[in-house]
Amino acid sequence: MGRMAEDPGRRRVLLAAPRGYCAGVDRAVIAVERALEQYGPPIYVRHEIVHNKYVVRTLERKGAVFVDETAEVPEGEIVIFSAHGVSPEVHREAERGRLATIDATCPLVTKVHKEAVRFAEADYDILLIGHEGHEEVIGTSGEAPDHITLVDGPDDVANVEVRDPEKVVWLSQTTLSVDETMETVEGLRRRFPLLVSPPSDDICYATQNRQTAIKQVAADADLVLVVGSKNSSNSVRMVEVALGAGAGAAHLVDNAEEIREEWLAGVSTVGLSSGASVPEVLVDGVLAWLAERGFGDVEVVQPMREHIQFSLPKELRRDLRAEAAAKVRG
Ligand code: SF4
Questions:
Q1: 278 lines ligand 1 (CB under 6 A)
Q2: The pTM is what?
């Protein structure tokens, strides 16, 4: 049913599902918690373990220390690499710094790294569709810097240069807009008709499912709220997808405190979802905020279910403190 057909007096929330934590984020956050329990603080984490302020602050309170670079971690300590993945050079830096490492890179990001290595070994030019400066793109590019060219959306297609137009493959960041990526691929294929596609989707299941669900919700919503942090790529994409799917307005908020009262003016249906790095407690806060303003009627819109889980990083099964001490002793 479209917006025009709704009873104007009825106020409701369409709650998208799946939303929130994906399997890769769940694994990364649990990895930090387990490391803190197993080895005690401090546990160093290179970059935000996942792009969510609340998660980062909660882990800091438990003893995690977030650093920008591996070089900031004292010799002999434990460092965790975030879900977004790191380049091989970062692993080498950690080795030089005699650090024990736990790699919480999402297995679906690792899959893209492996594809990059394989196509580089076969001497392809790799066109990596992604956002310049995003940690995942930096990590993937580091696997084969001489073979990878970043393509930052459809407008960047015209700038791409390759050595041999008959030996070109595209790969992508895992958290992009599915529709915009396909537009970029079409543009690339017009320029390079023999362009090879990745063996399986690089945009991960969680990103795709959250976009499918928010599209369904957005078509009937006057206002869409996406809970997520500004530096969370998949959350930002959900706002764009909601607007593209017909939402009257769409905003990204870290929590209920960031919602502005004036956004509710004239609104009868609010669509709500959250990015893949967002704990459910933040969505609960938004639901409570909306209920206080007459939006207590909540309908779940769930086009699909998710059952994916990843096992924890294997390093958590070893005694890393002992390994790090042995490295320092040489
Ligand atoms: S958003 Fe996708 S790629 Fe990123 S951590 Fe989650 S499952 Fe992995």
A1: no
A2: 0.94
| 3-class secondary structure per residue, 136-152 | HHHHHHCCCCCCEEEEC
Q: Whose CA is nearest to atom 8 of ligand 1?
A: 24
Strands (E), the chain: 12-16, 43-46, 64-67, 78-81, 100-103, 125-129, 148-151, 168-172, 223-227, 250-253, 269-274, 297-301
The neighbouring-strand residues paired with 273 are 226
> How would residue 6 be classed by pLDDT, with cut points 50, 70 and 90?
low
Report residue 155 as tokens. 């407008």
H helices of 176-316, in order, are: 178-191, 205-218, 233-244, 280-292
pLDDT tens track for 83-94: 999 999 999 999
Taking the CA of residue 22 as reference, the ligand 1 atom at the shortest distance is 6
DSSP reduced 3-state for 89:
helix
Assess whether the C-beta atom of 50 lies below 6 angstroms from ligand 1: no
The angle at the Cα of 99, spanning 98 to 104, to the nearest 5 degrees, equals 150
Closest by Cα among 224, 288, 231 to 254: 231
Distance 7 CA to ligand 1 centre (A): 38
5 pLDDT higher than 80: no
